[in-house]
Every structure is written in structure tokens, then in C-alpha cells.
Amino acid sequence: MCRLIFTSLFVLLTTVCGAQIAQHGHAHNDYMHKRPLFEALENGFTSIEIDVFLHNNDLVVSHTAAGLDKKQDIEELYLKPIQKIIHDNGGHVYKDYTGPVIFMVELKTSADPAYAKLKEILDKYKDMLAVYSHDSLIKPGPIQILITGNKPLGPVLKEETGYVTIDGDIKDLKNNKYLHTITRYSDPWSLYFTWTGSGPMPQDEKNRLDTLVAEVHSKGKQIRFYAIPDKPEVWRMLLNAHVDWVNTDKLKEYNHFYLTEYNGR
To answer: In this structure, are residues 190 and 225 in contact, taking their beta carbons and an 8 Å threshold?
Structure first.
């Protein structure tokens, strides 16, 4: 009980006092931290990744299918806590920042049934969710939902309005069939680059990075690379190249880097 009270007080203080936003930070596999959601918020992240399995008619948060019966669901770990934080902060996730926080939900099981369950759950939290007409924002909200993993491209494309958009694959940039469901494009770093942050980035790879960023931005979308060499030299290169989201597992380190070393420079 004492531990629960301490945790609640700690969370209350961090949400009331707010946090300095570490711009462009994407909290990769957030649920694997000791305190999912809260560590990301304490470090000012505005994009948070949540892997879910459709299990026993619920969306259980997990990286793998092992031990799902013992793990918490997306409502317990993310939606209920963020709902309370938003209420306590007067309609925003952060007290001193009015922009949205993106929940990037990775569907680890078959796309269509998992998406159907996700829609059912999200409808209970509609007051805090952004609403889209395809890829166009028609009602702002403190939480935006972005789907990755097994993507329900067909169902989302058919919807006139909804709570979600899709994370597309960079390698499919030239395929415009589902363009108007997509707001972000992602791919693994190693698909395009060999540079690991030691010494200067090879010029041909720097040119490739700049070209990919320009192509994605020309479509009015955002870009992210995952499985990056997770260190400041690479973070700086990505930020300087105007990559929208820096994928990292090192929440405190990225926060410190962005606010004290980089700070928009």
C-alpha cells in the first residue's frame, strides 16, 4: 500500500509540474520500461509505442505472445492512466505543452479482428482522441492513434471518419493506394544505411537520407527509422536531416541530449 501511495504521489507531481518536451522523441517499445507510459512522459516524449495482442477478446500489451494471461491490457497500462492525466492537466497530456501525444499501437495479431477490438475500446475514450477523415485531422485531441505492425489498411481506407491513421513502409513510398490512410512512414535503419555513428556519415548514405526525408515530406507525411544505432551521434544526424521521429529506447539519455546538448541546434 505504501508503495502504491508513493507511486501515485510521484505521478501526480510529475503530471502537475509538467515535463520539458524532448522534441521528436519516439519511445520505442515503451511497455518494456519499468513504468510504462510514465517514464516516457517524465522525459517529455510525444510519441509512444505500444505492442498489443488480441487475446481472450482483449488487447494485451506485450512484445511476444508468451505469458499473455498474466499481462495487462492497453486500457490498464495506457488509456485509463492517460485519461486521468489529461483530466488533471485541464485537457492536455502536459501542463505546459498543448500539442498531442501519439500512441503508436502495433498490432501483433491479425489486423482486422485486432482493429475491430481496438475501435471498440477507443470509443470509450473518444473525448480525448483526435478524429480523422482519412489522413486529414478534423477534430484535434490530446491523443492521436497511429497503427503499425499488422495494418488494417482496407478497413481504415473505407472509413469516412475514425480515430486512427496508419504507419506506412518507406519502401512502399511509390504505392499511393493507401496514401490517404498514412500519416507516418517507417522502416528499419539497416535497409538503407550501414553507418553506425562512428566518424562522418558516408556521403552517399547522407544523400540517401536527405532524399528519403524529402520524398516523405513532399507527400505531407512524417518519417521514422527504427532499429537505429541508439546513440547521440545518430540522433544528431537524424535531427539535422529533419527526420520527424527519433526512435530510441534510451528515454532519459535522449531527453538530456535534446534539452542540454542539441536543443534545436
So the answer is: no
Q: Which three cell numbers stand for residue 174?
A: 511509390
The per-residue pLDDT for 28 is 98
Query: For residue 265, what pLDDT is reported?
Result: 60
What is the CA angle 251-253-254, rounded to 5? 65
Q: Which fold has domain 22-262?
A: TIM Barrel (3.20.20)
Identity at 140, one-letter amino acid code: P
Can you list the residues of the chain whose pLDDT is less than 70? 1-18, 264-265
Question: Grid coordinates representing 37?
Answer: 507510459
Amino acid identity at 190: S
For the chain, give every domain's residue range. Answer: 22-262
Q: How is residue 77 annotated by DSSP?
A: I
Q: pLDDT value at position 250?
A: 98
C-alpha to C-alpha distance for 165 and 180, rounded to whole angstroms: 9
Does an H or E element contain 138, and which? Answer: strand 136-139
What would the 3-class secondary structure string for 186-214 be?
Answer: EEEHHHCCCCCCCCCCCHHHHHHHHHHHH
Torsion of CA 49, 235, 13, 99, to 10 degrees: -70
Which DSSP symbol is given to 110? -
